[in-house]
Amino acid sequence: MARRGDVLELAVLGLLQDSPMHGYELRKRLNAMLGSFRAFSYGTLYPCLKMLLEKGWIRESDGERAKERPAHALSGRRGRIVYQLTAEGKERFASLLAGSGSAAWEDEQFDVHFAFFSRTDAQTRLKILEGRRTRMQERLEKAHEAAHRTRERRDRYTLELQRHAEESMEREVRWLDDLIDSERRRADEPRSGSRRTRPSESTREGDS
């Protein structure tokens, strides 16, 4: 099971890969990108930023980017500090993105990995999607078994709630199936950079 701090580390490094940001903007972007991951407080974000600073993966700056920020975002000492990714931070982010183990299949970790799929290599994307599908299928089977065992002891509202949960898992499994099929088709396609010899070119080469 992934710790929330691990998930936040990946998300912060990924957002700072795009551009330097201060704490206010980081928190806003995190909550917008990971709404299902629940809102972040500054009490959660700043300890993470402190750890990343100590590791040397980000650095602080009071440079020009801070002067460009909206006035309401720059109130207070913390609002003026801009956080930037270091070279070591970029390496750390790439290393985290390459992880495709079972932790990447869990709810919060999967959401963050998926948010950065455009920067993840195709093989890793497919492994994470397949792992997530396996995990959701296991949950769905357990939910079906539990529903069958306890159906007679539950009232109509509890049964409806259970049905809603099962339908949600079924929708995610179908969604994952579509994504996996798409990734596999893309992997089977010939590389766009490969150059195919046209008949006319072969003819010209043979005539020369």
Chart the SSEs and their pairings.
Blueprint: H1 4-18, E1 21-22, H2 23-33, H3 42-55, E2 58-61, H4 64-67, H5 77-80, E3 82-85, H6 87-97, H7 107-115, H8 122-150, H9 156-188, H10 199-207
Antiparallel strand pairs: 1-3, 2-3
Helix pairs in contact: 1-3, 1-6, 1-7, 8-9
Give the tags.
5% strand, 2 domains, mainly alpha, Arc Repressor Mutant, subunit A, 3 strands, 208 residues, single chain, 10 helices
H/E topology pattern: HEHHEHHEHHHHH
Helix content: 55-70%
End-to-end separation in angstroms reads: 66 Å
The CATH topology of the largest domain corresponds to Arc Repressor Mutant, subunit A
Backbone shape:
globular
Mean pLDDT: 81
Structural class: mainly alpha
Number of discrete helical segments? 10
Number of extended strands: 3
Q: Structurally, how many domains make up the residues?
A: 2
CATH architecture of the largest domain: Orthogonal Bundle
**Integer-rounded radius of gyration:** 23 Å
CATH homologous superfamily of the largest domain, by name?
Answer: Winged helix-like DNA-binding domain superfamily/Winged helix DNA-binding domain
Question: Sheet with the most strands?
Answer: 3 strands, antiparallel
CATH class of the largest domain: Mainly Alpha
- In spatial order, strands of the major sheet run 1-3-2
Unreliable segments of 5+ consecutive residues: 69-79, 192-197, 199-206
Portion in beta strands: under 5%
